[in-house]
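Risk register update: the risk of archive-format incompatibility is retired. Evidence:
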Amino acid sequence: MSESSRDAVLARIRQGLAAGPAPLPPRPDFAAPVHPPLSNSDVVVAFAERFQQIGGEFHYCETLVDLATQLAAFRERQQVGAPYVWEPDLQAVLQAAGVAFRAQEDDFIANADLSLTSCEVLVARTGSVLVSAATGSGRRLSIYPDQHLVLARPSQVVAEIGDALRVMQERYGAAMPSMVSLTSGPSRTADIEKTLVLGAHGPRRIALFLLEEEDATLN
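Archived output:
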């Protein structure tokens, strides 16, 4: 390095030192929310919007008659038989609505094209359905069939995943179910060529029927 080059470097160093230390970055506000506000102040509307964005099919049912009509229309569109329903409370709701279902496990493996289950919680932030093995549906009905239907009510919607986990903790305490799963849209995967395949590890379609019946016992 020539004398002039060395002098120029030293001059820049002296100038930098004279300016003093660089200011510290602002201290993070650890009390501030991590996520931006939901898309809608109504968590039910926010859930419906997000659920559909990630590939779910959302149906709002104001009455049991409405539920029966929309379930029949769904089955006709998809050309599927009656859903497998193993939860007694759900069976009671469907019987009151006049909806046919399969309560037994006869030929389940061969004919499991459609299931209907309840859920623990619905998460507005991610549009996720939280299911567990604690219900009469167990593990199989939310995973094995080609198409998974969920019957829920508005009171089950919470804003964040943390809220959903708190609900589970309050509900079960130390006796947490052996399986707790957050389902976000239909099962999907993509290979190295980025070819999207639905139904690779679970149901190819998920549809949620939100029932606005105050006297419908779903849990």
